[in-house]
Amino acid sequence: MKKIIAEIIAIGDELLYGQTLDTNSHWISGELDKVGIKVVRRTTVGDIESEILTAFAEAEKRADIILITGGLGPTNDDLTKPCLAKYFNCKIVMFEDALRDVTAFFASRGRELTELNRQQAALPECCKAVRNELGTAPGMWFDRGEKVFVSMPGVPHEMKKMMTEIVIPQLLEKYQTPFIRHQIIKTVGIGESFLAEKIAAWENALPPHIKLAYLPSLGEVKLRLTAIGQSAKTMDAELKECVEKLKPLASQYIYGYNETPLEAVIGQLLRDRKLTLSIAESCTGGYLSHLITSIPGSSEYFLGTMIPYAYEIKMRQLGVKPETLEKHGAVSEPTIIEMANIVRAKFSTDIGVATSGIAGPGGATPEKPVGTVWIAYSDKHQTVTRKLQLSTDRMINIRMSSVAVLNLIRLSLPK
To answer: How many independent structural domains does the chain possess?
Structure first.
């Protein structure tokens, strides 16, 4: 079965200036993936006729389907429609069905239909109008042999309805698409290169039609398996088999699959074991608690947090011994052990965890550079600590420290 290739072109100076985020292309890519259409390129073009025409020509060489968003408004800087008319060498004429829709749209809102708005129903005569039920700018569908161009509004909710209800169904009528299946394996506690080395033999043994991608983020690495073929059932079974073969090699790092975040996995583990959690976080400043409480139902297992940022608060409010701080400092193993044990006792929880570190950019010493972080886990059976040496970036250190604590909980929970 032939692979069907798509390219997305987003038009508008505001996208290039950074004034508007192009969420449309991201969403369209996801929807096409669901129906077996592979997006090979996404291009952003400003409001310049020559650049737009060049983008059309280059996309047509590469792709079967070219999807265009933006530039369909009624003002002079909206160039998509005239550029498409020029590209397909046809004149712009009034489409009566489109005019009725635009007229009805304004009438339903008690507004006058101006000549400028009326011209939105004027389209290249060689296209098929694509109805816009939520706005005034119709879409345009162009067929050129086996190639298809579709132009849609840049307003996200208008584009999404048009895409979902009209464009995708018509594309599936025109093209026979293969199935695309993805399986995400989520890992934590190991870097990308170390993970790649550990699973190299498994990766090399993957079938030719199943591809592996490494998707690293702060403290985590996602493995994405992608299979393309004619039978969804067969591919799902093959992907499951691949995952089963991976588990013996990386089970200690695998925490979940697909879209479930680490904090949700930890929450489910606590819920299943009927355990409660409290936190004392210094360098992470509440970010760890934010992750925990972002999960619905977290009140079942999370009782509360303290943020003893200053020395005085660590002593007076939390209860760390002054001599511990004086002898070892706030960023030390003895201090972090006390923080985790004390917060567990204060909140009467099964588990207490704590963070203390130098997030940066200031506060470092030769012995404790920026990025030095201590974390701890405490329950009635054990106290486990880890020393992290992270980056010089404050927000990266906060995020990675929080992920490291979540992973420490995962590894330390009683079985």
So the answer is: 3
